[in-house]
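Q: I have 449 residues here and want to know how they pack in 3D. Can you give me a structure?
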Amino acid sequence: MSGATLKARALRASAGELVGIGGTYALRLVSTLILSRLLFPEAFGLAALVGIFNYGLVMLSDVGLLQSVVQDDRGDDPKFLNTVWTVQVLRGVALWILACALAWPMAAIYGEADLLALIPVGSASVLILGFTSTSLMTLRRRLAVGRLVRLELAGQAVGLVAIVAWAWVAPSAWAIVAGGLVSAVFRAGVSHAIDVGYRNGIAWEPEARRTIASLGKWVYGSSALTFVGRESDRLLLGHFMGVATLGVYTLAVVIGEAVGKAVERITRGVLFPLLSQIKRDAPKEIGEVYYRARLRLDLMGLPLLGALMAMAQTVVDILYDPRYADAGWMLQALCLRAAMNVILVPAEVCLFSIGQARYAFDRNIGRAAWVLIGVPLAWMQWGLPGIVWVTATAEIPSVFILWRPFIRAGLLRPSREAMAVGLFAAGLALGWAADRGVHAAARSLGIAF
């Protein structure tokens, strides 16, 4: 494939990912705006625990099925794909059985009897999604992002309608759980109607299993530690402070992740297949392609995150009622975490694409250790602010873990990394000025928020 053709595909895929993540977070924002007026913070907290639990099940059993299809030379072979699908189905069934078994311990740990029913029902989405066709993985391998985006947005819209309708009639955490189930059924069903040249069936090919296991040993450990590093703050927060505080914090997470997740999604969904293709076709061009892509990603994400950090409290005060006011200072801290993620995720993906998967694993070890050690200590010393700021700085070990192999591979450009920091600082300064302007205008109009 020519460089021009690959670049064109990557640009189209990036545009598709931006539309997808933009639509996704627009729907999430609309959802939180509506639900924050229909539900109490406790309902958000309970639903967040169910969501974290499901995410944990998936991440703690991730064996790299998507990565195998995207990266492996046999990623278009129906026998390989059907083996991947069979593994996925068996995994979904096993995870749902495990979820049912763990519902009582989770309810006891958090002192919330509602979790006894919420977890088994909510985790049925993991079972349903286990039957999703590998057609979605094939589209990802082919950088056919447009079709994936349309499916994802449609599924989220259907789920949102179900959530709001339920919350309007019977406001509780069940509304959010029910919406997740509706979305899962829609996604799994439609995936089998997508024409990619094959249909899934049961297969158990030894060679395919060995390939999955070879890559999966690194992905499994990395994904498990990703879950610990990313979600242990919310798990510990729910335990220490209760589900109401967790609900407020979760709202801050939804806002703070919007920009960072857009960049991460493009990185993993577009940059990873792109760099994997470059590695196969022209490995000496990896560094040049990486930093060209990084410049676009940094320009897209870092100034916005800096501005959002400066304006966080004002944004929360304008959008939400006083019950959620504490989400403002929490959002400030989470913007710092998102900015570090924007800088570091592309480095991790670049190393993965050249066959150095272990550094994603190492990065997550560092992040998990930082959170698991720091959060209890910060809780004892500073309480809730300590937990939030330890979480916000959890990527500090990743800088040393990822840049060492980057230097050894001759890929690191210090001037470009300094530019990334400068972009964030510029956004912070502009956001501070804009925040002062908004407050001055509000005072002149007699508006208080």
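Q: Anything worth noting?
A: Residues 17 and 266 are 6 Å apart (CA to CA). The first helix runs from residue 3 to 38.
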